[in-house]
């Protein structure tokens, strides 16, 4: 496929194999309740909980926190690693440490488990590094031989689908291969192809041939069903990559039931997935979007304003904050990225911003803090990561400086929302309440956090249309005395 190609409409492509079965998710949940198998999700940024509710996420992978996270009847636990913001050496170290702790805790607790490496639905992140490290460490510490890893980047809530082994984004009413979007030009995790077997070959620098990937096609799922997918999974050996085509939750639910059947037969798998698969494999049912009351703090001073902090620099995010600023009289504070990257001007710039934020929020003014929109990049991946980390750490300082509790807190961008959660709000253990809108999760902070029992809206950088931030803001404001 080349640029300029006319792609099929979203509707036509998704009507191709139209099926649904509401009972599949219940069957998955019953299976997990019976077997007590758990899925531990290593999430490389905090947006991976954007499809689930009533589960917990921990941001500290010490053994005591993992034990706490696995101590209830739930079939899934998220561990926030934030590795997408780190270099490969630190990413490897984090994954190895987590696996060692998981092995020790699950052995003590007598828990059977599988590990999911949750990453980006637009194919960014440390692949194949994280999968290879998980495989290696599981073999070293638990003598587990991984048969294969399922690659499932489908994320339906944000219109990301895998058809004919190619990963697409819905843009307007058209499907566009993800390599033709801005996400493929990521300064750290860029790529050239949306064809997943070829993407694997590209990401492994040719060490894994595209033809070696096993394929679970839509035809396998819709005509062969669970048994056909099960047979494909049984054929996997030596950590083979397994491409999963999917355009709906029906597809993922069939795959999930086949995976559980294969696990019962003694196979071991890893998973490199976006958010939708976790909802399926954990048997999590649908629930309505959260009401305004559920995403606004009940114990914040009613005279305090809300707070939105934005670090993401994607075009989508820029459009969203412009729409918000055009529609509502929100206080706007722009942080100059050139100034915070310069050691001589960083302190003065941050002092200015922190003082303004505290004054605004305590004066009942909803406040938007955003980084300057001109993207600053370097010539190599390591330098670009350092720039991202410096920007994110500056936003964390703004959160840490808050003396008053905002009425609501929203962070926009994967790295931003992770650092705000762990370093700014000091969250260790949070409950996922649900979603504010499609693909936008809301955490409830724990008692250890800077602001305890506080809803925290985590807005991914690559999710939503231009009105999405304004939509959430609108919902919140309308609920307060029935007006904006």
Automatic annotation (TrEMBL):
Q: What GO molecular function annotations does the UniProt record carry, in alphabetical order?
A: ATP binding; kinase activity
InterPro entries found in the cross-reference section? 4-carb_acid_sugar_kinase_N, 4-carb_acid_sugar_kinase_N_sf, NBD_C, NBD_C_sf
- Supply the alphabetized keyword list: ATP-binding, Carbohydrate metabolism, Kinase, Nucleotide-binding, Transferase
The chain positions of domain Four-carbon acid sugar kinase N-terminal read 40-280
Pfam annotation, one family: NBD_C
Q: Where is the Four-carbon acid sugar kinase nucleotide binding domain?
A: 308-468
Similarity-based family: Belongs to the four-carbon acid sugar kinase family.
- Record protein name field: Hydroxyacid dehydrogenase
Q: State the organism named in the record.
A: Peribacillus muralis
């Amino acid at each position: 496929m080349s640029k300029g190609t006319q792609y099929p409409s979203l509707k036509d492509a998704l009507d191709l194999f139209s099926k649904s079965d509401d009972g599949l998710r219940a069957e998955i949940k019953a299976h997990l309740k019976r077997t007590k198998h758990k899925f531990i999700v290593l999430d490389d940024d905090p947006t991976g909980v954007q499809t689930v509710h009533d589960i917990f996420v921990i941001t500290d992978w010490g053994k005591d926190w993992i034990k706490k996270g696995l101590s209830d009847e739930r079939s899934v636990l998220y561990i926030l690693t934030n590795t997408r913001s780190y270099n490969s050496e630190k990413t490897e170290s984090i994954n190895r440490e987590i696996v060692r702790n998981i092995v020790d805790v699950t052995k003590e607790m007598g828990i059977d488990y599988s590990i999911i490496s949750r990453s980006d639905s637009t194919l960014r992140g440390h692949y194949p590094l994280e999968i290879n490290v998980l495989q290696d460490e599981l073999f070293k510490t638990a003598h587990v031989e991984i048969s294969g890893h399922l690659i499932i980047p489908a994320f339906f809530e944000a219109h990301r689908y895998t058809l004919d082994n190619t990963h697409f984004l819905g843009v307007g009413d058209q499907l566009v291969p993800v390599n033709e979007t801005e996400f493929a030009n990521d300064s750290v995790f860029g790529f050239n192809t949306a064809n997943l077997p070829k993407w694997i070959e590209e990401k492994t620098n040719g060490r894994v041939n595209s033809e070696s990937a096993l394929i679970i096609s839509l035809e396998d799922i819709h005509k062969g069903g669970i048994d056909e997918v099960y047979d494909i999974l049984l054929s996997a050996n030596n950590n083979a990559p397994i491409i999963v085509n999917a355009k709906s939750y029906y597809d993922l639910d069939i795959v999930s039931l086949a995976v559980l059947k294969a696990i019962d037969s003694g196979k071991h798998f890893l998973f490199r997935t976006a958010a939708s698969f976790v909802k399926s494999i954990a048997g999590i049912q649908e629930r309505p979007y959260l009401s305004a009351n559920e995403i606004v703090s009940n114990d914040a001073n009613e005279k305090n304003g809300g707070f939105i902090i934005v670090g993401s620099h994607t075009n989508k995010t820029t459009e969203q904050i412009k729409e918000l600023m055009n529609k509502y009289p929100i206080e706007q504070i722009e942080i100059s990225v050139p100034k915070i990257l310069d050691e001589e001007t960083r302190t003065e710039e941050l002092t200015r911003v922190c003082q303004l934020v505290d004054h605004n929020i305590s004066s009942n003014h909803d406040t938007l803090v955003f980084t300057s929109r001109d993207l600053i990049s370097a010539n190599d991946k390591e330098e670009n990561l350092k720039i991202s980390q410096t920007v994110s750490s500056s936003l964390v300082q703004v959160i840490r400086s808050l003396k008053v509790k905002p009425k609501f807190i929203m962070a926009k961008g994967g790295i931003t929302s992770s650092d705000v959660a762990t370093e700014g709000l000091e969250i260790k253990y949070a409950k996922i309440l649900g979603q504010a809108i499609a693909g936008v999760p809301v955490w409830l902070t724990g008692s250890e956090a800077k602001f305890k029992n506080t809803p925290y809206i985590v807005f991914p950088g690559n999710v939503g249309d231009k009105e999405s931030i304004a939509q959430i803001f609108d919902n919140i404001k309308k609920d307060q005395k029935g007006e904006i």
